[in-house]
Write a structure and sequence with these properties.
Blueprint lengths: L6 H4 L5 H4 L21 H17 L8 H15 L8 H6 L7 H6 L4 H24 L11 E3 L11 H21 L4 H20 L3 H14 L6 E3 L1 H13 L2 E2 L2 E6 L2 E7 L4 H5 L7 E7 L6 E2 L5 H8 L6 E7 L10 E6 L1 E2 L2 H4 L2 E9 L2 E9 L7 H5 L8 H14 L4 E5 L8 H8 L7 E7 L4 E5 L13 E5 L6 H11 L4 E4 L7 E7 L14 E10 L15 E2 L35 H15 L3 H17 L3 E3 L2 H25 L8 H6 L5 H21 L10
Parallel strand pairs: 12-13, 13-16, 16-17, 17-20
Antiparallel strand pairs: 1-21, 2-19, 3-10, 4-5, 5-6, 6-7, 6-8, 8-9, 11-12, 14-15, 14-19, 18-19
Amino acid sequence: MKNFDTGCRRWIFAAFVCLWALSGIAAIPAVISDNELGPEARHEKIGQLVSEFVQKSHYRHTAVDDDLSSKVLDRYIYALDSNRMYLLASDVESFEPQRYRLDDMVRSEPLNPVFEIFAVYRARVRERLNFALLQLETEPDFSIDETYVFDREDLPWLQTEAELDDLWRKRVKNDAMNLRLAEKDWTETQEILRKRYLRFLKRMDQIKSDDVFETFMNAFAHTLDPHSSYLSPRNSEEYRIQMSLSYFGIGASLQIDDDYVMVINIIPGGPAAIDGKLQPKDRITGVAQGEQGDLIDVIGWRLDDVVQLIRGPADTVVRLQIMPAGALPGAPEKIISLTRNQVKLEEQAAKSETITVPREGRDWSIGVIKVPSFYRDYRALSNGDKDYTSTTKDVRRLIRELEDEGIDGLIVDLRNNGGGHLTEATALSGLFIDNGPVVQLRNSNGRISRLDDPDPVPRVSYNGPLAVLVNRYSASASEIFAAAIQDYARGVIIGQQTFGKGTVQNLYSLDQYVRRPDEAGLGQLTLTIGKYYRVTGESTQHRGVKPDIALPSSIDTELVGESVRETALPWDTIRTTKFQAGAPLDSTISSLMASHNSRSKDDPDYQYLMAGIHDIEQVRAQKSVSLNIEVRRAERKDEINRRLDRENARRAALQLEPVATLEELEALEPPDVHLDQAAAIVTDLAQLREIDVRPAQTAQVRP
């Protein structure tokens, strides 16, 4: 169950149950009576529509049967209580009679059992939160040696309420300790946690029947694959609004992960992208207005409420308290100040720079083109504007400028590029290869189509030494481009195995099929309808693109990527299409790898990167924390010292002055080790190219 990617984790506004994973109201009734929740007539209609679309249009043409029903039940329970903090084993056992009935309910029968399951869950949540509030009456003893297991996803359901009480006693103690470690006294700690728990309670009572139905339908949709989903009418509209407004504020996409607001991605060209400190998987724990405003604890808040705090007038400052990605509960948090603004098109655009690499008495100039997304201004294009903005046009111009500067090689940097317009991926590929196919697409009916380089003239914009730099967050259109460069043997792929998102989705507005003017809306369904394939016939789905030369990364491929999602469509192959590849690069890549391995052994920045990854992996492996405050303080001190030692070892090797404090360390701009390594590899490639084109020398024969 660990790799479930439920609707509450995936969609920003889809699953309010997940937003309130710690919420409820003060009373603990056996059934829902104060805010009656139950299926509505249109829910049955929606279920029928979704079932029809799934069986006719989804890529898998999945049968809505008992086998699917069983999987949906497991996923629905997971959506409600993914960390097994509320429900007892007996509760889960009581849901078993519904295991093979959910398919019938979705197709034609009343959904009452779905709401009855939720009623049990909500009663347990209220129980737990009331228990948590009682724990705040007495300050815990932080000198006792005991541990709190915060990751229970793979552990058994607890059997008794006494076991739940002990788990929650430790949970509250851990919450309190985190605040005490942040120098809050007990009175402040009590007040913060009391407000937090009461807020959870209030949120639970605000849940609507549509929210419960939506969570269940997302459990249904995510049983098909991670990218199919359902949004209720209210959340469809909210999602549309938020997406249109996401380009105003800090420029980050957010979702709820358990109690926390987590950063999903950074929008190119926004304040967060320009600042560079906020990263995917970071968790926002507090928000403050201006440089002096008080931090507001936002753990357990609804996502839209947090968005409202973060959003504000242009050119004003918002401060975010961040728990870095992978950090343990209670780890030191950092404060990031961002100036709100609109995402500017020019900031989204591809940009270039040059890196100078000294080598054997000569300075080699390596051009870098950073492509943050695959964009195209379709509005300008449809209005007949020949100067419309596009990734391909910008990169073509940047290549000309870099070649005018006399570069010896080029890096196309696609790190963190989550994709964009498919037409731009094919057009950009055409700048580096002659005419030919770029990607293949197979739809749900098995029909295969081919997308070629759209430029009818067989020409390239750059034919020099080329590398494409990728990481685990390079996805979709980025993978199509990288795969084409690799398959045509046009360049070397460097970095980390890419995300593996090789599927195509279609959005269905259900109102178009049934709704009458006097009825409430039916929401929208997103279904996976196709898959992308490389020109070799291999899918980019699941496996992504494997680099020719791998670089170590702190992004954990066991946590990030399509392959970690249990219901992801599999990797497979279709027939190879005809294409003309260049000469194989196998021997060249072997030579490049040998040079890279030899060079990295003595590279202070590379060793710094490796040491940092090792420490991050150790933290990720932990599933529990000590509840002894002196132990936690010692651990925090050790972590800070390790960070300082890593940096100072690097600085000593580079003959730089050491740093003495954490504040000094965090003020530094960290080295871009991956880009520097890529530049060194492209320099190797340029040297090899120079040798290959150098005229052969004829031996002189003396008379």
